[in-house]
Design brief:
Layout: E1 5-9, H1 14-28, E2 33-37, H2 49-63, E3 67-70, H3 82-95, E4 99-103, H4 110-125, E5 143-147, E6 157-160, H5 165-173, H6 194-211, E7 216-220
Parallel strand pairs: 1-2, 1-4, 2-3, 4-5
Antiparallel strand pairs: 5-7, 6-7
Helix pairs in contact: 1-5, 2-5, 3-4
The protein binds zinc ion.
Length: 234
């Protein structure tokens, strides 16, 4: 199955929070995308692997993902090694995305940093014909765009998610075990406070304001972005 885009996240709610609006926009525009989680998020203070798998499936349905793959790497053990690199190469070759989305290179959680490096390396290595792993042919995505999580950066570009804001919020809230839920008996975390959701929504609004739209998601890329025409400039 060929997909237009593949979004990678270290933990099962990372993609939703960081580029869920962009993925929803792709789906509305008929561009098929997939989601790839490195881990099951089993080291999280709230929920467990089984609960989080169910929530991830529901969030993927809300965003309109064709597939949601879990690489099955242990949470908090995303190591920079050959075995993990090959897992990423194989999933890129299988789905042949034009674009991959992944965490930005500098992050508070080491899992995010390592996920960044593995995806960045795999985007290159997956294109090497003589690198024979698994059953899929060599393939290199055209673009790698890195999304914002805890640490901020000067964005290379923004995606207008004004029409996708509600869908994005619903996909985040599908992770019921992780975010604010007054009926949960799990210990409180930074993410589960009402203030965290307020912060997330405020940041989307802030980036929208900076970009001249209502809500936006920021991305960074090491290579310049070429614009084909001005039709979609808002
Ligand atoms: Zn994460």
């Amino acid at each position: 199955m060929k997909l237009f885009a593949l979004a990678f996240g270290a933990h099962p709610d990372d993609i939703e929070m960081s580029c869920g609006g962009t993925l929803s926009m792709l789906h509305r525009n008929g561009k098929p995308f997939g989601m790839v989680d490195f881990t099951r998020g089993e080291m999280g203070t709230r929920g467990n692997a089984a609960i989080r798998a169910r929530e991830a499936k529901e969030a993927a349905r809300i965003l309109g993902a064709e597939v949601r793959v879990n690489l099955g790497i242990s949470d908090s053990h995303i190591e920079l090694n050959r075995a993990n690199l090959i897992k990423v190469v194989e999933v890129i070759r299988k789905y042949q995305p034009e674009i991959v989305f992944a965490p930005y290179r500098e992050e508070r959680h080491p899992d995010h940093v390592h996920a960044h490096q593995l995806v960045s390396d795999a985007v290159f290595y997956s294109g090497l014909r003589k690198l024979k792993v698994g059953k899929f042919q060599a393939y290199r995505p055209k673009h790698a765009y890195y999304y914002m999580q805890h640490r901020t950066f000067e964005p290379s570009f923004y995606i207008d998610i004004s029409h996708d804001y509600d869908t994005k919020v619903a996909s985040i809230q599908a992770h019921k075990s992780q975010f604010f839920n007054p009926s949960s008996k799990d210990p409180q975390t930074m993410l589960s406070t009402p203030e965290f959701m307020e912060y997330l929504l405020g940041r989307m609004r802030y980036h929208g304001r900076v970009a001249g739209v209502r809500y936006a998601e920021p991305f960074w890329t090491p290579e310049p972005v070429a614009i084909m025409n001005f039709d979609s400039i808002v």
